[in-house]
Amino acid sequence: MLLRLAVAVVFLGGLVIAPQAFAQNAGGTSAQGGGFALTFPQGQQQQQPQAPKPKKPRPPTAVKMQRPPLPSSAEGNRILAVVNDEMISVQDLEGRIRLAIGYSNIPDTPDTRSKIAPQVLRKMIDERLQIQEANRLKVVLTPEEVDQGIQMIEKKNNMPAGALISGIASRGGDPSLARDQIRADLTWLRLVNKALRPQIRIGTAEVQDRLESMKGRLGRSEYLLAEILLPVDNPSQEGDVRRLSESLLGQMKKGTPFSALARQFSRASSAANGGSLGWVSDEGLDQALLPVVTQLGKGQVSIPVRTAEGFTVLMMLDRRVNGGGGSGAAALPSTDQVRLALEDERLDMLARRYIRDLRRAAYLEFRK
Fold this sequence. Notes:
This protein is α+β, with helices and mostly antiparallel strands. Helix content is 42%, strand content 14%. It contains ten helices and ten strands. The strands form three sheets. Strands 5, 6, 7, 8 and 9 form a five-stranded mixed sheet that branches. Strands 4-3-10 form a three-stranded antiparallel sheet. Strand 1 and strand 2 form a beta hairpin. Helix 6 crosses helix 10. The longest helix has 27 residues, at 110-136. It is globular and about 60 Å long.
């Protein structure tokens, strides 16, 4: 599936910004999310470039991730997890849970905290790994650049200066944690573009093959989708992850923006993009998702679907007919547009592989 990491759109609780200033060698795109009235229906063959090899930390033996203990404020600064040479305390996790609850407008109950704690912790671990790798490769955003990102969010959403941070505080969230999350997202975008995009080479033959394939699909449907992916890392998590997906679906029915939930809970690389996948065709979809997607109308959200990775919830932002002219139809793109799309697809694949390799190389320890 397509994710334009080159110029991704960062969502923070339904707020949207296209941070072109933070990606290198970027093209241009935009994404949508959270703005639709939700309704719910019934019921490459070539050798791919490799991501930079992550530096193996010590101790070298990784510990398989298990379900983390549930947070309790009484435990204070007790260490909950170790990510290479960094520690995550129960207090750290509690702060992020409060942030997620405040942004997502979901009930702050013990049951909610119990459901979201494992997913929030895994997302925090990914952010730690991404920042560690960025530091290793000397990809660092200055405080001024983070400030610029916040200002761009406020401008994009017609907010007065300072309203984003003050709003976070008014909802009981820690503004410093929000800054950390924005910094992590923007740093990862810059790292991916700096480390991976220069490796990508799209030949003329590949562009022509894609154009010929698109001509063969004239008249077929394409879908503008957003996703929330909740992986099931081991069988013991099946029930918990399924219940979390159902809980998030319930919050969307109550009006919580899809993009806000994707930003906080999804572990797909599209999370920084509010879950947006861009335009995809039948061929670009997981076959387990295709029957569900074809039944969705514009603005509708799917039930949680079990795939090989875990549970996926999809939102249909729009749909169109490929080529052929007329209302709702999409003309064939230019060769430059096709080349950029192929680069973005390759970049998305490499970014997913990159974070997967960082997880595998990491030393992870969970403490009871």
